[in-house]
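hiii so um. not sure if this is the right channel but i have a protein structure encoded as tokens and i wanna go backwards to a sequence. like what aa goes where. can anyone help
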């Protein structure tokens, strides 16, 4: 699957810092340019193609929505703003999603998943039989069907299977991108679980074997929706 090129267009340096940090945590996204107003973005997009644009609505000289109107073929766009009153209007421009500042990482992930779904990535069309992870200086293949759940562990991720617990050199976000989204769900900032391994669930936890795994408030709605369709 080719890495998708991203552009940030925002007049606030703090917004650039947050979005750039989030983008760098996703191995399938590459930040190729940062623009601080609509004119810069317009000039850049005349000569360069990008796959995804993170676009602020409120900017001097030309607003984000005016930039979209000006571009003959705008890239797929996720809008960002501190003002919720623009939400309804923004969807008239065919944007992927609308992020309200301050932008939190789980919400960013959800928006980028909508982007990947819209471009038909391999993760949506092909279910891998195994994932490849780095264990210290070695590389190991783990059968996807064996994975019960994964837990962040400092700078590592613990991947739990019935036979063994693996300590992988990667972030939880990177692991989430490697796993087939139709089989796994994020239930907490520190936990990803296999949907078909869940034996019981309530508002605050899911149960897999003898383990009760916490369900974070940010993830509860999506978790409940996914469990309904099992």
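sure thing!! here u go:
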């Amino acid at each position: 699957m080719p890495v998708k090129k991203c552009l940030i267009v925002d007049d606030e340096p703090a917004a650039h810092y947050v979005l750039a940090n989030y983008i760098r945590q996703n191995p399938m996204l590459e930040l190729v340019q940062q623009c601080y107003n609509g004119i810069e973005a317009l000039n850049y997009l005349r000569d360069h193609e990008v796959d995804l644009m993170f676009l602020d609505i409120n900017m001097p000289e030309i607003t984000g929505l005016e930039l979209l109107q000006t571009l003959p073929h705008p890239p797929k766009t996720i809008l960002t703003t501190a003002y919720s009153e623009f939400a309804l209007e923004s969807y008239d421009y065919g944007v992927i999603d609308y992020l309200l500042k301050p932008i939190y990482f789980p919400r960013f992930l959800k928006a980028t998943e909508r982007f990947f779904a819209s471009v038909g990535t391999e993760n949506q069309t092909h279910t891998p039989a195994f994932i490849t992870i780095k264990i210290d200086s070695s590389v190991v293949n783990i059968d996807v069907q064996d994975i019960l759940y994964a837990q962040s562990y400092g700078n590592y991720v613990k991947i739990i299977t019935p036979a063994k617990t693996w300590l992988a050199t990667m972030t939880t976000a990177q692991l989430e991108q490697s796993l087939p989204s139709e089989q796994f769900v994020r239930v907490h900032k520190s936990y990803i679980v296999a949907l078909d391994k869940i034996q019981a669930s309530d508002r605050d936890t899911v149960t897999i074997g003898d383990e009760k795994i916490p369900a974070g408030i940010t993830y509860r709605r999506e978790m409940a929706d996914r469990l309904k369709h099992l």
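oh and The chain has two domains: 4-123, 128-228.
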